[in-house]
Amino acid sequence: MKKTLKTQFLTRQYMLSKDYELYYYSDSHMANVDSHTHDYYEFYFFLEGTVSYLIEKQLYDLKEGDVVVIPPGIHHKAVIRDSEKPYSRFVFWISMDYYERIRQMSEEYFYIIRLAADKGQYVFHNDAVAFSSIQSRIFHLIEEIHWERFGKEEKIFIGICDLFLHLSRMAYEKNHPRKLKEDQNLYENIIQYIDTQLDQDLSLEHLAGKFYASKYHIAHIFKENTGISIHQYIMKKRLAACQDAILSNISITKAYLMLGFKDYSSFYRAFKKEYGISPKEFRDMKIQPEQQTIKAGKGTS
Length: 301
Fold this sequence. Notes:
Layout: E1 20-27, E2 41-48, E3 51-55, E4 58-61, E5 67-70, E6 76-80, E7 87-94, H1 96-103, H2 111-119, E8 123-124, H3 128-146, H4 152-175, H5 177-196, H6 204-211, H7 215-226, H8 230-247, H9 252-258, H10 264-275, H11 279-299
Antiparallel strand pairs: 1-7, 2-5, 2-7, 3-4, 3-6, 5-8
Helix pairs in contact: 3-4, 5-7
């Protein structure tokens, strides 16, 4: 933990900033705070302690990694079960105006908030790996808030958007496990198809028709799983296959035509960009030394 980022806990339950406040607390021998409401959103990230959370007359026993989302006007309070043990958490407050600013860009940022506000789902459980990813984002935000650097507010805004989208995605995927599995199956089937059909039409239009899915959806799940676009993946696979073909003494012309490239100029540019050398330079560098070695071996036998 980054001790320098900790804040001394105050019982104040109202915002001083007009936009957001983010705190990292770690205390012992703390008294309970009375039940209260806010006119802003509260995100509570539980790190350690023996604590329950009372929300609108329902008590939730917290586990490390739990995220609690409290919309405006909802009564809540932390109930400390053992004041001797360290009680650590992040508390993030965001104003209604700042919420609306982000919401205007996309409703997807606030899927997790809608679950709390519309369905009364306030507590979200996370395992250690999932919470580590959340915690990393929060620490980056706290550091940015404490530093005075160029583009500070813009960086904070991006960080808050990233945190909310990350939380919303995790909540959505937990609530839609079947959809997640279907997407994973689709991705795996497309990967298998691409790897065995490099000589065929692999355009998004063709794949969309082949797998009965939208071009947007295919592009989205592919980028989500690989970190690169489907076009980049296909290009890399075709180029690698061309390398193997050239090493097998297949001519350069035959290699690029049999692996889905329409003309030499586009193949040449892609090959040079990927490997830093031309196809002919690759062939000469890899094949000629081998041939010379073979000839030399025959000469000494």
